[in-house]
Amino acid sequence: MLMRIALSFILAGLGWALVACSPLPESHASSQKLQPTSSQQELLIVFSGNTLGELKPCGCAKEEDQGGIERRMGYLKSVVPEGHALLFVDLGDNFKEPTRQGRIKARYLMSAMARMGYDAVTLGDRDLLYGNEFLKKQEGLPWLTSNMRIKGMDPPRYRIQTYDNGLKVAVLAVADPDLFYVSGHSQITMQDPATAVRDLLPEIAQGGQPDVVVLLTHMERKKALKLVDIDGVDVVINGHIEDESDTIDMQAVRKGQKVFAQAAPLGQKMGELRVTVYGEKKTYEHRMVRLDSKIPDDAGMTALHDEYNQEIEALFFETLKAKRAKDRTQVYATESTCKTCHAGAHATWSDSRHAHAYATLKEVNKSFDPECLKCHTTGFEKPGGFISEIDTPELKNVQCEMCHGARLDHSRAPQGGFAEEARGACSQCHVPKHSPNFNYETYWPKIRH
């Protein structure tokens, strides 16, 4: 559990930016800051979301070398505010795909988040990917669901936080039923989000009206923006992502005494929303913090990630036996055969990064990770493709047939007509997360052959 030690929160140099004051959501103008007084109370809301299983950035592209549990914890230990309260929340969609590796990754991510000391975690549609029983086993996660009932689970519908500075904060969390019904989750029942919030606010007020009401939402941005209009809600923070390559508008929006903010994709940035309360007046300052190499890695999270790597390595070797037992009919000619007729193209390839792709995995001790091997070897998890460095050393690296398809038959009876396949092959690995600046027209000249 993250220890909230009393470190100074140095505002100078942090780059705080006042969010919009004009009507939602057309324009953005600066708001006037309140002058500090003894009656002024402050709350710092730190938020994450849309992690999609990203325990650590792969490092393939410096532009997208952001995020990861090591930097998230390193950041959190440096953001311990002095003079105002801290609310730490997550907007959901922490899991990605129903694979064995995905499940292992989800378990380690939940363990990491439990140690970080979140105050509330929203359930996104992807978070039920492994079922209710999986979630129940993840200890230390403060799930919050205001409009959702889950079979076998009973998370609270809201939380009340009272801080040493006297500030009282209510936190609710709602999700869009359409996302869950489309995903086929049959173990849940859901209420209309706006109705659920309006029903709960009077109950919350019975114990004394909160100074700040924070509504966490998991839905499309346009839908979440409408919930800002609910009377009694001060802050709406939204999270949801359809695909890891989605572009997310992270600009905060202000409407009167209210504000809307959006979580970043893949846990690459942490959101900070500083709320200043003076009587019935509130001001907001918002920024997104890049979790890049400037953020120090936390040693405890590094150790946890090392444990994950060990488990994935064990899984890799466990599956080798089954792969070796399958029909291993040769379908790839390999680059050594291709160069017989295509010497010039082979020379160009030999000087490219494609020809050394496997070595880059060895350098970072990732030559056992299936998520990496599929783009650093030839034909991994395809019939006749790469199995391991020992079994199929001839299929290491991104060879000709990663772009042109398995062509053993072509080497025996040459014929053309498949060059165009290469263009489409690029997009299988050159995705925004790994290659954000990829453009075929500019990259192709570097390997033209």
UniProtKB/TrEMBL annotation:
Residues spanning the signal sequence: none
Molecular function, one GO term: hydrolase activity
UniProt record, GO biological process: nucleotide catabolic process
Residue stretches making up the Cytochrome c-552/4 domain: 337-405
Source domain of life: Bacteria
Record-linked PROSITE patterns: PROKAR_LIPOPROTEIN
Cited InterPro entries: 5_nucleotidase/apyrase, Cyt_c-552/4, Metallo-depent_PP-like, Multihaem_cyt_sf
Name of the protein in question: Cytochrome c-552/4 domain-containing protein
Organism: Nitrospina gracilis (strain 3/211)
